[in-house]
Protein backbone atom coordinates (compact mmCIF):
# COMPACT_ATOMS: atom_id res chain seq x y z
CA UNK A 1 0.00 0.00 0.00
CA UNK A 2 2.86 2.42 0.78
CA UNK A 3 4.39 1.75 -2.62
CA UNK A 4 1.08 2.45 -4.33
CA UNK A 5 0.77 5.71 -2.40
CA UNK A 6 4.25 6.82 -3.41
CA UNK A 7 3.51 6.03 -7.05
CA UNK A 8 0.38 8.20 -6.93
CA UNK A 9 2.32 11.08 -5.37
CA UNK A 10 4.96 10.88 -8.09
CA UNK A 11 2.29 11.00 -10.77
CA UNK A 12 0.70 14.07 -9.17
CA UNK A 13 4.03 15.91 -9.02
CA UNK A 14 4.74 15.04 -12.66
CA UNK A 15 1.31 16.32 -13.66
CA UNK A 16 1.93 19.64 -11.90
CA UNK A 17 5.24 20.12 -13.76
CA UNK A 18 3.63 19.44 -17.13
CA UNK A 19 0.81 21.87 -16.40
CA UNK A 20 3.32 24.63 -15.46
CA UNK A 21 5.31 24.07 -18.65
CA UNK A 22 2.17 24.25 -20.72
CA UNK A 23 1.15 27.55 -19.07
CA UNK A 24 4.55 29.14 -19.74
CA UNK A 25 4.40 28.04 -23.33
CA UNK A 26 1.04 29.80 -23.83
CA UNK A 27 2.29 33.21 -22.59
CA UNK A 28 2.43 36.08 -25.36
CA UNK A 29 5.66 36.24 -27.34
CA UNK A 30 6.38 39.87 -26.56
CA UNK A 31 5.87 39.47 -22.86
CA UNK A 32 9.01 38.57 -20.91
CA UNK A 33 9.04 35.43 -18.92
CA UNK A 34 8.78 35.59 -15.21
CA UNK A 35 12.45 34.95 -14.74
CA UNK A 36 13.35 37.81 -17.12
CA UNK A 37 11.11 40.48 -15.51
CA UNK A 38 13.74 41.34 -12.95
CA UNK A 39 16.40 42.19 -15.58
CA UNK A 40 17.12 45.84 -16.46
CA UNK A 41 15.03 47.29 -19.23
CA UNK A 42 18.06 48.17 -21.33
CA UNK A 43 19.28 44.68 -21.41
CA UNK A 44 15.84 43.55 -22.42
CA UNK A 45 15.66 46.16 -25.13
CA UNK A 46 19.08 45.30 -26.49
CA UNK A 47 18.11 41.69 -26.63
CA UNK A 48 14.91 42.51 -28.42
CA UNK A 49 16.68 44.82 -30.85
CA UNK A 50 19.48 42.55 -31.68
CA UNK A 51 19.44 41.01 -35.09
CA UNK A 52 20.59 37.74 -36.31
CA UNK A 53 23.64 38.45 -38.47
CA UNK A 54 23.44 35.03 -39.95
CA UNK A 55 27.10 34.57 -39.65
CA UNK A 56 28.47 31.09 -39.88
CA UNK A 57 29.14 29.50 -36.56
CA UNK A 58 26.10 31.02 -34.83
CA UNK A 59 23.51 28.52 -33.47
CA UNK A 60 20.00 28.90 -34.76
CA UNK A 61 17.40 29.05 -32.06
CA UNK A 62 14.60 26.52 -32.60
CA UNK A 63 11.11 27.79 -32.20
CA UNK A 64 8.88 25.66 -29.96
CA UNK A 65 5.44 24.69 -31.04
CA UNK A 66 2.85 26.36 -28.87
CA UNK A 67 1.02 24.15 -26.39
CA UNK A 68 -2.70 24.18 -26.98
CA UNK A 69 -5.46 23.63 -24.40
CA UNK A 70 -6.13 20.24 -25.98
CA UNK A 71 -2.54 19.28 -25.30
CA UNK A 72 -2.94 20.23 -21.63
CA UNK A 73 -6.18 18.30 -21.38
CA UNK A 74 -4.54 15.28 -23.02
CA UNK A 75 -1.68 15.50 -20.58
CA UNK A 76 -4.07 15.61 -17.67
CA UNK A 77 -6.11 12.72 -19.04
CA UNK A 78 -2.92 10.73 -19.55
CA UNK A 79 -1.91 11.39 -15.95
CA UNK A 80 -5.38 10.36 -14.78
CA UNK A 81 -5.23 7.22 -16.89
CA UNK A 82 -1.86 6.28 -15.52
CA UNK A 83 -3.05 6.95 -11.97
CA UNK A 84 -6.17 4.85 -12.61
CA UNK A 85 -4.09 2.08 -14.12
CA UNK A 86 -1.75 2.14 -11.14
CA UNK A 87 -4.73 2.01 -8.78
CA UNK A 88 -6.30 -0.83 -10.72
CA UNK A 89 -3.00 -2.68 -10.72
CA UNK A 90 -2.72 -2.16 -6.97
CA UNK A 91 -6.29 -3.42 -6.47
CA UNK A 92 -5.61 -6.42 -8.69
CA UNK A 93 -2.46 -7.27 -6.80
CA UNK A 94 -4.31 -6.89 -3.48
CA UNK A 95 -7.15 -9.10 -4.73
CA UNK A 96 -4.64 -11.67 -6.03
CA UNK A 97 -2.88 -11.65 -2.66
CA UNK A 98 -6.19 -12.22 -0.81
CA UNK A 99 -7.24 -14.96 -3.22
CA UNK A 100 -3.86 -16.66 -2.90
CA UNK A 101 -4.09 -16.48 0.91
CA UNK A 102 -7.63 -17.95 0.77
CA UNK A 103 -6.47 -20.75 -1.51
CA UNK A 104 -3.56 -21.57 0.76
CA UNK A 105 -5.83 -21.55 3.83
CA UNK A 106 -8.35 -23.81 2.04
CA UNK A 107 -5.56 -26.17 0.96
CA UNK A 108 -4.28 -26.27 4.54
CA UNK A 109 -7.77 -27.11 5.87
CA UNK A 110 -8.29 -29.76 3.22
CA UNK A 111 -4.93 -31.32 4.05
CA UNK A 112 -5.79 -31.35 7.75
CA UNK A 113 -9.17 -32.97 7.00
CA UNK A 114 -7.51 -35.59 4.81
CA UNK A 115 -4.95 -36.39 7.50
CA UNK A 116 -7.67 -36.65 10.15
CA UNK A 117 -9.71 -38.94 7.86
CA UNK A 118 -6.66 -41.11 7.19
CA UNK A 119 -5.97 -41.32 10.94
CA UNK A 120 -9.58 -42.39 11.60
CA UNK A 121 -9.42 -45.02 8.89
CA UNK A 122 -6.12 -46.33 10.29
CA UNK A 123 -7.65 -46.52 13.77
CA UNK A 124 -10.71 -48.31 12.37
CA UNK A 125 -8.42 -50.74 10.52
CA UNK A 126 -6.51 -51.46 13.74
CA UNK A 127 -9.78 -52.07 15.59
CA UNK A 128 -11.00 -54.41 12.85
CA UNK A 129 -7.75 -56.34 13.01
CA UNK A 130 -8.07 -56.66 16.79
CA UNK A 131 -11.65 -57.88 16.44
CA UNK A 132 -10.57 -60.40 13.80
CA UNK A 133 -7.83 -61.66 16.11
CA UNK A 134 -10.35 -62.02 18.95
CA UNK A 135 -12.78 -63.89 16.71
CA UNK A 136 -10.00 -66.22 15.56
CA UNK A 137 -8.95 -66.89 19.15
CA UNK A 138 -12.59 -67.49 20.15
CA UNK A 139 -13.10 -69.91 17.28
CA UNK A 140 -9.95 -71.79 18.28
CA UNK A 141 -11.18 -71.97 21.88
CA UNK A 142 -14.60 -73.18 20.73
CA UNK A 143 -12.98 -75.91 18.66
CA UNK A 144 -10.86 -76.97 21.64
CA UNK A 145 -13.94 -76.98 23.89
CA UNK A 146 -15.86 -79.04 21.35
CA UNK A 147 -13.01 -81.54 21.18
CA UNK A 148 -12.95 -81.72 24.99
CA UNK A 149 -16.71 -82.21 25.12
CA UNK A 150 -16.58 -85.00 22.55
CA UNK A 151 -13.77 -86.69 24.46
CA UNK A 152 -15.69 -86.34 27.72
CA UNK A 153 -18.85 -87.71 26.10
CA UNK A 154 -16.96 -90.76 24.86
CA UNK A 155 -15.48 -91.33 28.31
CA UNK A 156 -18.89 -90.94 29.91
CA UNK A 157 -20.43 -93.37 27.45
CA UNK A 158 -17.69 -95.87 28.22
CA UNK A 159 -18.25 -95.40 31.95
CA UNK A 160 -21.99 -95.75 31.54
CA UNK A 161 -21.50 -98.97 29.62
CA UNK A 162 -19.19 -100.30 32.34
CA UNK A 163 -21.53 -99.18 35.09
CA UNK A 164 -24.49 -100.79 33.37
CA UNK A 165 -23.13 -104.21 34.22
CA UNK A 166 -22.36 -103.02 37.73
CA UNK A 167 -25.92 -101.75 38.15
CA UNK A 168 -27.32 -105.06 37.09
CA UNK A 169 -25.08 -106.86 39.57
CA UNK A 170 -26.11 -104.42 42.28
CA UNK A 171 -29.74 -105.04 41.45
CA UNK A 172 -29.20 -108.77 41.77
CA UNK A 173 -27.56 -108.26 45.15
CA UNK A 174 -30.34 -106.00 46.36
CA UNK A 175 -32.93 -108.52 45.22
CA UNK A 176 -31.11 -111.16 47.19
CA UNK A 177 -31.06 -108.89 50.23
CA UNK A 178 -34.76 -108.17 49.81
CA UNK A 179 -35.57 -111.85 49.84
CA UNK A 180 -33.86 -112.16 53.21
CA UNK A 181 -35.43 -109.07 54.81
CA UNK A 182 -38.73 -108.82 56.56
CA UNK A 183 -41.96 -108.07 54.68
CA UNK A 184 -42.16 -104.42 53.61
CA UNK A 185 -39.30 -103.41 55.87
CA UNK A 186 -36.35 -101.26 54.87
CA UNK A 187 -32.84 -102.24 55.89
CA UNK A 188 -29.82 -99.96 55.85
CA UNK A 189 -26.32 -99.86 57.29
CA UNK A 190 -25.03 -96.75 59.01
CA UNK A 191 -21.61 -95.66 57.80
CA UNK A 192 -19.02 -95.03 60.52
CA UNK A 193 -15.58 -94.03 59.22
CA UNK A 194 -13.94 -95.10 62.50
CA UNK A 195 -15.36 -98.63 62.26
CA UNK A 196 -15.50 -99.30 58.55
CA UNK A 197 -12.67 -101.30 56.96
CA UNK A 198 -11.35 -101.12 53.38
CA UNK A 199 -12.67 -104.66 52.82
CA UNK A 200 -16.18 -103.41 53.60
CA UNK A 201 -15.81 -101.03 50.65
CA UNK A 202 -14.54 -103.65 48.23
CA UNK A 203 -10.87 -102.76 48.53
CA UNK A 204 -7.99 -104.82 49.98
CA UNK A 205 -4.43 -103.69 50.73
CA UNK A 206 -1.08 -105.31 51.30
CA UNK A 207 2.08 -103.86 52.82
CA UNK A 208 4.84 -102.72 50.46
CA UNK A 209 8.31 -101.29 50.89
CA UNK A 210 7.04 -97.69 50.58
CA UNK A 211 3.67 -98.08 52.31
CA UNK A 212 0.58 -99.94 51.12
CA UNK A 213 -0.51 -101.31 47.74
CA UNK A 214 -3.87 -102.58 46.45
CA UNK A 215 -4.06 -106.35 46.49
CA UNK A 216 -7.64 -106.64 45.23
CA UNK A 217 -10.41 -104.37 43.95
CA UNK A 218 -13.93 -105.71 44.00
CA UNK A 219 -15.65 -105.47 40.61
CA UNK A 220 -18.75 -104.10 42.32
CA UNK A 221 -16.99 -101.30 44.20
CA UNK A 222 -16.86 -97.62 43.25
CA UNK A 223 -13.07 -97.84 43.19
CA UNK A 224 -13.23 -99.85 39.96
CA UNK A 225 -15.23 -97.05 38.31
CA UNK A 226 -12.67 -94.55 39.59
CA UNK A 227 -9.86 -96.45 37.79
CA UNK A 228 -8.04 -98.27 40.61
CA UNK A 229 -6.22 -101.50 39.72
CA UNK A 230 -4.60 -104.35 41.54
CA UNK A 231 -0.98 -103.54 42.37
CA UNK A 232 -1.45 -99.75 42.57
CA UNK A 233 0.68 -98.32 45.36
CA UNK A 234 -1.12 -95.58 47.32
CA UNK A 235 1.01 -92.43 47.54
CA UNK A 236 -1.38 -89.81 48.95
CA UNK A 237 -5.07 -89.08 49.59
CA UNK A 238 -6.31 -85.50 49.35
CA UNK A 239 -2.71 -84.27 49.53
CA UNK A 240 -1.85 -86.35 52.66
CA UNK A 241 0.86 -89.03 52.43
CA UNK A 242 -0.46 -92.55 53.12
CA UNK A 243 1.62 -95.34 54.73
CA UNK A 244 -1.12 -97.36 56.52
CA UNK A 245 -4.64 -98.58 55.72
CA UNK A 246 -6.09 -96.47 58.52
CA UNK A 247 -4.55 -93.38 56.89
CA UNK A 248 -6.35 -94.19 53.65
CA UNK A 249 -9.76 -94.38 55.38
CA UNK A 250 -9.11 -91.39 57.64
CA UNK A 251 -8.01 -89.03 54.84
CA UNK A 252 -10.68 -90.26 52.39
CA UNK A 253 -13.65 -89.84 54.73
CA UNK A 254 -12.58 -86.83 56.81
CA UNK A 255 -15.22 -84.18 57.39
CA UNK A 256 -13.65 -81.75 54.95
CA UNK A 257 -13.10 -84.45 52.34
CA UNK A 258 -16.75 -85.59 52.25
CA UNK A 259 -18.09 -82.04 51.87
CA UNK A 260 -15.59 -81.03 49.20
CA UNK A 261 -16.83 -83.51 46.54
CA UNK A 262 -14.10 -85.24 44.55
CA UNK A 263 -10.94 -86.32 46.38
CA UNK A 264 -7.65 -86.79 44.47
CA UNK A 265 -5.85 -90.07 45.16
CA UNK A 266 -2.28 -90.37 43.80
CA UNK A 267 -0.98 -93.87 43.04
CA UNK A 268 2.28 -95.23 41.65
CA UNK A 269 1.69 -97.49 38.66
CA UNK A 270 4.40 -98.85 36.37
CA UNK A 271 6.97 -96.46 37.79
CA UNK A 272 4.83 -93.38 37.08
CA UNK A 273 2.44 -91.39 39.24
CA UNK A 274 -1.23 -91.23 38.30
CA UNK A 275 -4.11 -89.35 39.90
CA UNK A 276 -7.62 -90.79 40.28
CA UNK A 277 -10.62 -89.02 41.76
CA UNK A 278 -13.09 -90.55 44.22
CA UNK A 279 -16.38 -89.18 45.57
CA UNK A 280 -16.62 -90.20 49.25
CA UNK A 281 -20.33 -89.36 49.33
CA UNK A 282 -21.03 -91.89 46.57
CA UNK A 283 -19.10 -94.61 48.40
CA UNK A 284 -20.97 -93.86 51.64
CA UNK A 285 -24.31 -93.91 49.83
CA UNK A 286 -23.55 -97.27 48.23
CA UNK A 287 -22.57 -98.60 51.65
CA UNK A 288 -25.88 -97.37 53.16
CA UNK A 289 -28.07 -98.44 50.20
CA UNK A 290 -31.69 -99.05 51.26
CA UNK A 291 -33.00 -102.50 50.21
CA UNK A 292 -36.70 -102.87 49.34
CA UNK A 293 -38.50 -106.14 50.04
CA UNK A 294 -39.51 -108.21 47.05
CA UNK A 295 -38.31 -105.83 44.34
CA UNK A 296 -35.38 -103.77 43.09
CA UNK A 297 -34.50 -100.27 44.21
CA UNK A 298 -37.07 -97.99 42.46
CA UNK A 299 -34.57 -95.16 42.00
CA UNK A 300 -32.03 -97.41 40.33
CA UNK A 301 -34.85 -99.12 38.41
CA UNK A 302 -35.87 -95.70 37.07
CA UNK A 303 -32.26 -95.20 35.92
CA UNK A 304 -30.93 -92.62 38.38
CA UNK A 305 -27.97 -92.44 40.73
CA UNK A 306 -28.52 -89.68 43.29
CA UNK A 307 -25.75 -87.49 44.66
CA UNK A 308 -25.46 -88.27 48.38
CA UNK A 309 -23.73 -85.05 49.44
CA UNK A 310 -27.02 -83.26 50.25
CA UNK A 311 -29.53 -84.45 52.83
CA UNK A 312 -32.27 -81.93 51.96
CA UNK A 313 -31.89 -81.77 48.17
CA UNK A 314 -31.96 -84.45 45.49
CA UNK A 315 -29.40 -83.95 42.69
CA UNK A 316 -28.83 -86.39 39.83
CA UNK A 317 -25.27 -87.71 39.87
CA UNK A 318 -25.62 -90.12 36.97
CA UNK A 319 -28.25 -91.22 34.45
CA UNK A 320 -28.10 -94.87 33.36
CA UNK A 321 -28.02 -95.12 29.59
CA UNK A 322 -31.27 -96.25 27.86
CA UNK A 323 -33.15 -96.16 31.16
CA UNK A 324 -36.60 -94.50 31.55
CA UNK A 325 -34.89 -91.45 33.08
CA UNK A 326 -32.51 -91.24 30.13
CA UNK A 327 -35.33 -91.62 27.61
CA UNK A 328 -37.33 -88.91 29.40
CA UNK A 329 -34.42 -86.46 29.10
CA UNK A 330 -33.32 -86.15 32.71
CA UNK A 331 -29.73 -84.91 32.89
CA UNK A 332 -26.80 -85.00 35.31
CA UNK A 333 -26.93 -82.18 37.92
CA UNK A 334 -30.73 -81.81 37.58
CA UNK A 335 -32.37 -81.14 40.95
CA UNK A 336 -35.55 -83.18 41.37
CA UNK A 337 -38.23 -80.95 42.92
CA UNK A 338 -41.46 -82.92 42.71
CA UNK A 339 -43.19 -86.02 41.31
CA UNK A 340 -46.83 -85.53 40.25
CA UNK A 341 -46.85 -82.22 42.16
CA UNK A 342 -45.69 -83.94 45.37
CA UNK A 343 -42.58 -82.30 46.82
CA UNK A 344 -39.29 -84.25 46.93
CA UNK A 345 -36.86 -83.24 49.69
CA UNK A 346 -34.78 -86.39 50.09
CA UNK A 347 -33.69 -89.57 48.38
CA UNK A 348 -36.24 -91.56 50.40
CA UNK A 349 -39.04 -89.20 49.22
CA UNK A 350 -38.11 -89.92 45.63
CA UNK A 351 -37.93 -93.68 46.21
CA UNK A 352 -41.35 -93.67 47.93
CA UNK A 353 -43.03 -91.73 45.10
CA UNK A 354 -41.46 -93.83 42.35
CA UNK A 355 -42.67 -96.94 44.17
CA UNK A 356 -46.13 -95.41 44.59
CA UNK A 357 -46.53 -94.71 40.87
CA UNK A 358 -45.05 -98.03 39.77
CA UNK A 359 -45.96 -98.73 36.11
CA UNK A 360 -47.59 -95.32 35.60
CA UNK A 361 -46.68 -92.19 33.71
CA UNK A 362 -45.47 -89.37 35.94
CA UNK A 363 -44.70 -85.68 35.67
CA UNK A 364 -41.31 -84.96 37.25
CA UNK A 365 -40.41 -81.34 37.98
CA UNK A 366 -36.66 -80.58 37.92
CA UNK A 367 -34.53 -77.45 38.18
CA UNK A 368 -31.92 -77.10 35.42
CA UNK A 369 -29.72 -74.01 34.90
CA UNK A 370 -31.81 -72.09 37.48
CA UNK A 371 -35.04 -72.79 35.56
CA UNK A 372 -37.83 -75.20 36.51
CA UNK A 373 -38.78 -77.78 33.85
CA UNK A 374 -41.57 -80.36 33.72
CA UNK A 375 -40.54 -83.76 32.34
CA UNK A 376 -42.92 -86.57 31.50
CA UNK A 377 -41.63 -90.09 32.17
CA UNK A 378 -42.86 -93.62 32.84
CA UNK A 379 -41.98 -95.76 35.85
CA UNK A 380 -41.15 -99.33 34.87
CA UNK A 381 -43.12 -102.01 36.71
Description:
The protein has helices spanning 2-25, 41-49, 69-180, 222-226, 245-252, 255-260, 280-287, 298-302, 324-328, 347-356; strands at residues 186-187, 203-208, 211-217, 233-237, 240-241, 263-269, 272-278, 291-292, 304-307, 315-319, 335-339, 342-343, 361-368, 371-378. It is an alpha+beta fold and 381 residues long. Among the domains are: 198-284, PDZ domain (Pdz3 Domain, Roll); 295-378, PDZ domain (Pdz3 Domain), CATH 2.30.42.10. The strands form five sheets. Strands 5-4-6-7 form a four-stranded antiparallel β-sheet. Strands 12-11-13-14 form a four-stranded antiparallel β-sheet. A two-stranded antiparallel ribbon has the order 1-8. Helix 1 (2-25) runs antiparallel to helix 3 (69-180). The longest helix is centred in the first third of the chain and has 112 residues, at 69-180. The chain is rod-shaped and about 165 Å long. Residues 33-39, 41-52, 178-187 and 290-295 have low confidence and may be disordered.
Topology summary:
Blueprint: H1 2-25, H2 41-49, H3 69-180, E1 186-187, E2 203-208, E3 211-217, H4 222-226, E4 233-237, E5 240-241, H5 245-252, H6 255-260, E6 263-269, E7 272-278, H7 280-287, E8 291-292, H8 298-302, E9 304-307, E10 315-319, H9 324-328, E11 335-339, E12 342-343, H10 347-356, E13 361-368, E14 371-378
Antiparallel strand pairs: 1-8, 2-3, 4-5, 4-6, 6-7, 9-10, 11-12, 11-13, 13-14
Amino acid sequence: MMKNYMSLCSLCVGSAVLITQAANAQAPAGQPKAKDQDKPAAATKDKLGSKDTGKSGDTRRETRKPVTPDDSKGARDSVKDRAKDAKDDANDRTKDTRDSAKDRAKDTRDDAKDRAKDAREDAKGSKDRREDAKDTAKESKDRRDDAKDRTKDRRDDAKDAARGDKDRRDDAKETAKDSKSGSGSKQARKFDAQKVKPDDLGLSFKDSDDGIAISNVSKDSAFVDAGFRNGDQIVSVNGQNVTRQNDFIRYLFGSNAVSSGRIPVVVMRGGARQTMYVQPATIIRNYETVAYQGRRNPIRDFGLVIDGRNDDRVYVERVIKDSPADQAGIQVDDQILAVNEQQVDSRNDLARLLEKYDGERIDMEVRRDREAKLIEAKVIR
